[in-house]
Amino acid sequence: MLTIKQIEAFYWVAKLGTVQRAADKLHVTQSAATKRLQEVERLSASPLFEQAGRKATLTARGHEMMLLCADLLESVAHLEEIQASTRNIPRVVHVGVTELVAMSWFPALVRKVRTVYPQLTLQPHIDHSAVLRDKIIDGQLDVAILPEAFVTRSAARVNLELVEFAWFSPPGTFNRGEVVPLQQLATLPVIEQDRTSIITALCARLFEQVGVEPTRLGGSRSIITLAGLIEAGIGVSCLPREFFTNEVAQGRLQIVETDPPAPAVRYCAIYPEHAALGLAVAELARECCDFSRMRAPASLG
Fold first, then answer.
1. Over the chain, what is the mean pLDDT?
2. Phi, psi of 268, rounded to the nearest 5 degrees
3. 22 vs 4, 29, 47, 186, CA distance in Å?
4. What's 136's domain CATH number?
5. What is the gyration radius of the CA atoms in the chain, in angstroms?
6. Are residues 168 and 153 in the same domain?
7. Which residue has the higher pLDDT, 217 or 221?
8. How many separate helices (H) and strands (E) can be counted in the chain?
9. Domain residue limits at 182
10. Three-state SS at 209
């Protein structure tokens, strides 16, 4: 993969005509500029410069590469301007997150943004994924962190982690270590979030694939409330696997391995296209994203 320094070397050699002029422009030695240029040429599928003459003359492929590099360097410069300006101008960034993000690694993102962009303040908006997506489309949010299924083509995206889900039941419902057919699990009431939840839709698809229709109970938008209903013996539910490790260890909940297994959900950070600030926060989200930090509160009641 090319680095920004290598791209700069190619761009300025093409622009100024010689390696020495490019080296002077970049304030590096000629040998350093040459090495960077050689790496660009090595990774290119075809020659970028004509072989004849002392002045660097671009091939047709080189001209294409030059245009791409110019656009990229312009975007990098714009991001650097955004970063410089955010250090001096207070700004509120409206970030939409799901409950899962808010209760896991969102605090780490807030701390990271404060470090990198001291004058930025993140204003969280916690809601369901469909609502967050619509707010991105309507321009009410700068960034939204939500499941991949809700990503809209009108927004740019940065891929984040995959979240593993599992079925949870009241303790003692099934033998420990037993892999339970989904048809057997479906004999118990299934406690669901509302119909807009991606995990509700994915689980419904799994039940349909194995040809069963369980008794569905409307639980709550909150996964904490769903866990409390499971512990009370109301039924089973599909929740983030790592979120309730303490409750499982305490014997308050039981993880049920099923065939087919519970689904996994890819999360993404989305932002309006060409929004440099949105991209900057989304990239920091990728650095901070860690759903293994998920922990439920000490009490579900």
1. 87
2. -140, 155
3. 14, 10, 19, 68
4. 3.40.190.10
5. 26
6. no
7. 217
8. 12, 10
9. 163-264
10. helix
Specify the residue for token string 């967050």.
Answer: 132
Residue 146 neighbours by CB under 8 Å, 6+ apart: 96, 97, 98, 129, 132, 133, 267, 268, 270
CB-neighbour burial class of residue 178 (10 A; exposed 0-12, middle 13-18, buried 19+): exposed
Q: Determine the Cα–Cα distance for residues 41 and 51; give it in Å rounded to an integer.
A: 12
**Tokens found for residue 281:** 């926060």
Single-letter code of the amino acid located at 277: L
* Tens digit of each residue's pLDDT (9 = 90 or more) over 28-68: 898 988 888 888 888 877 788 886 666 778 888 888 888 88
> Residue 6 above 80 pLDDT?
yes
The whole-number average pLDDT for the span 188-209 is: 91
Total tally of structural domains belonging to the chain? 3
N residues, the chain: 301
Distance CA 48, CA 65 (A): 8
HSE, CB side, 13 Å, CA atoms: give it for residue 133: 18
Under 8 Å CB-to-CB from 114, ≥6 apart: which residues? 120
Identify whether residues 157 and 96 lie together within a single domain.
Answer: yes
Q: Quick check: 117 and 83 in contact, CB under 8 A?
A: yes
In a domain, 218, yes or no: yes
Query: What percent of the chain clears pLDDT 70, i.e. is strictly above it?
Result: 92
Cα angle at 201 between 196 and 204, to 5 degrees? 140
- Average pLDDT for residues 134-138, to the nearest whole number? 90
